[in-house]
Amino acid sequence: MLQRTSQEIRPLTTAHLAQTMTLLQMTIDEIKQEIESELSSNPALELRDERRCPTCGRLLQERENCPVCSIPKESNPEDPVVFISPKDDFTPHSDQQEDDYLDGHDYSPITEDLPTYVLKQILPDLAEEDRQYAVFLLANLDDDGFLTVDPLELAQYFHVPLAKINGIRRIIQKADPLGVGSLNPREALQIQIEILSETQAVPALATLIVNEAMDLLSKRQFNEIAHRYNCSVADVHLAVSFISENLNPFPGRSYWGDVRSPSVSTTQVYHRPDIIINYLNDDPAQPLIVEIIMPLGGTLRVNPLFRKAVKSADEEQKDIWKEDLERASLFVKCLQQRNHTMQRLMFHLVKLQRDFIVKGPKYIEPITRVQLSVELDVHESTISRAVANKTVQLPTKQIIPLASFFDRSLNIRTIMREIISSETRPLSDAKLVKLLEARGHFVARRTVAKYRAMEGILPAHLRRMIT
DNA sequence: CTATGGCACGGATT
DNA sequence: AATCCGTGCCATAG
Fold first, then answer.
1. CA–C1' A234–B1 (A)
2. Looking at the structure, do residues A38 and A171 belong to the same domain, yes or no?
3. 3-state DSSP call for residue A86?
4. Which pLDDT tens digit goes with each residue over A3-20?
5. Do A237 and A141 sit in the same domain of this protein?
């Protein structure tokens, strides 16, 4: 069973309920923002120091013992371990960066480092007095090839116009690896498109997406994009595959050698997940560990000193402080309730969808939000809110929307893709229906057509055998 | 005649 | 109440 916090948390007031609901549907970034603003505006709130598990070094929430190290021996290995995991300085690509760095560094045929490599290319294009700035910029690149300093600060520091710095930056960006020295993946992609379009045709949609819809792209919400630009999802897929085949959102990585497989690289996401699922010790035989990320270094609570101070304060102070105190305790309660709900939700969800997580999208269980809401004894809209706009990192490091756990068609789409990719000659939608039936999936012909469109697969008569 | 995309309807989701 | 998804019906292209 799921561990319970010391006492059962129940909504006390309508305000409590309303705020909990709002918190529930917030993404990790919004929560972080909310907590920070609450923390700075309310003196009664306190961020208690971080606590770490003495055994594994993991950051802990308020609970006394570490949820990972203290898994009961008699517990069912099928059951996932779900807990709230405070992570303030969380970086989404830390694992991969290490891998890339090690692999690339050991095996890279290029012996000089990235800054030197770029500097050699651009030196002839630079005026004498501009070189120092270029050197400075190149000295502040991270492993992805992005700039780690703000150009505006740099301009002020050196007392030169921002335009000058950006001019130099453009020269750097046009060097190999293309897009190096950008501030973010979007800028890198923009430069790459610009250069690429000089020599070949670039789909207009791809440009639009990069310029205006990076957030949707990174969450892989292709439906949204199609909707926004009033085009079919298949078009979006074509544009996205153009992007992933011809462009590189992390210019520094291609330099160090791209060790990711092509299929994984297309699922790269440029923002951090709200929830991380992993095997205990990366061992598939072990239970699944589910971390619900809290963007904090420690634990949020009402400051007990403040509570004391209120009692001994004079009358007018008392009223103001009492209000703060109530706001603070309400906030903490709401946050706890939110986490509690997320925890229960994820426990059931991961247990139900274990095959999906472990074996892949083919094995997704087509559950509905209502089913789960009955099991958890909450209103179905609660599930909707909790699941919307959040993302999960799977053990494969793929980041997917949490809502895909409820995608009724994902398994069929995956199987359909398999059938098509192994076909000897293009199969019509009707034939696909038959083949899907043979595998125990019954969908209408029209629906297969829609799935094809969603997957960006062309109609049979336009499909050509691709190696 | 076959294969496919557009439109609209009903139920689920938000 | 508004929106999304699977499906049936029909028009159109080849």
1. 27
2. no
3. strand
4. 444 445 566 677 788 888
5. yes
Residue A211: inside a domain, yes or no?
Answer: yes
A242 and A380 housed in the same domain? no
Query: Is residue A157 located within the same domain as residue A284?
Result: no
Report the interhelical angle of A14-24 vs A380-387 (nearest 10°): 40
Structural domain of residue A18, as residue ranges? Answer: 14-90+273-406
* CATH code where residue A456 lies: 1.10.10
Highest mean pLDDT among A213-217, A278-282, A322-326, A392-396: A322-326
User: What span, in angstroms and rounded, lies between the C-alpha atoms of A145 and A139?
Assistant: 11
pTM (whole model) above 0.70: no
Indicate whether A159 belongs to any domain: yes
Contact A137, A169 (CB under 8 A): yes
Q: How far apart are CA A405 and CA A407, in angstroms?
A: 6
Q: Are A395 and A357 in contact (CB under 8 A)?
A: yes
SS3 A295: coil
> Could you give the number of structural domains in chain A?
3
The H or E element that residue A198 is part of is helix A185-199
Task: Enumerate the nucleotides of strand C whose atoms come under 7 Å of any protein CB.
Answer: 4-9
Chain B bases under 7 Å from protein CB?
2-7, 12-14
Nucleotide nearest to A454 (CA to C1'): C5
Instruction: Look up the protein residue whose alpha carbon has the minimum distance to the C1' of C8.
Output: A446
pLDDT in tens, A170-218: 999 988 778 888 888 889 889 989 988 887 888 888 888 888 888 777 7
Q: Identify whether A351 is part of a domain.
A: yes
Residue A158 pLDDT: 84
State which residues between 403 and 462 of chain A bring their CB within 7 Å of strand B.
Answer: 403, 406, 428-431, 445-446, 449, 452-453, 459-461
Pair A451, A415 in one domain: yes
